[in-house]
Each structure stands twice: as structure tokens, then as C-alpha cells.
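Side project, low priority. Logging it here so it doesn't get lost.
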Amino acid sequence: IAQVVEDQIIDCHRQARQLSFKQQFGELTPDEALREDRYIYKAILQACSQLHEMLQVPPAVDPRDTMAVLLMREVKTERALLNKCGQVFDERLNKP
């Protein structure tokens, strides 16, 4: 899974936060811009983690129940994506 959240979404949030900051406090320093980016990363990490916790794998299903099998496969796929999302944004958050 190369991208879990598209760069355009991150850029949109970045631009909104930076504009808000500039309107309140003036131009951002590089340290302030990094801090604002980390707020975004932390929020995405928390959202991915919460969704991962909420999306529980259902108990074993009858293999003859095609719909239940497909649903279980989708739940597992979503959990894997949410796990990857958490890893990616944890790495971004903790980059020096």
C-alpha cells in the first residue's frame, strides 16, 4: 500500500492550517510550519487508530455463506489499511 492518504489531502489541511496561523500570528517560521504539520499527522494517526479499534474482525463464519466471507475479507482489508495508516503517520510524526 504505497499511499494511505493522498498527498493532496495533506496539502489541503496544511494550507488551511497555515492560512489560519498567518491570519492570527503572521508568517510561520520553519519550526512553526513543522509543528503545524505534526498536528495534522497526529490527528490522522488518531483517526486511523480509532477506526482500527472500532472495526473488529467478526467471529468465524460459515464458509458456504459467500456474503459473510466477502464481508470478512473486506473488514480484514480495511483493518490492514488502517494499521498501515497508523504506521505511516506515526513515522511522519516522529521524524526528526
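Brief comment: The helical segments are 7-25, 30-54, 66-93.
Revisit when time allows.
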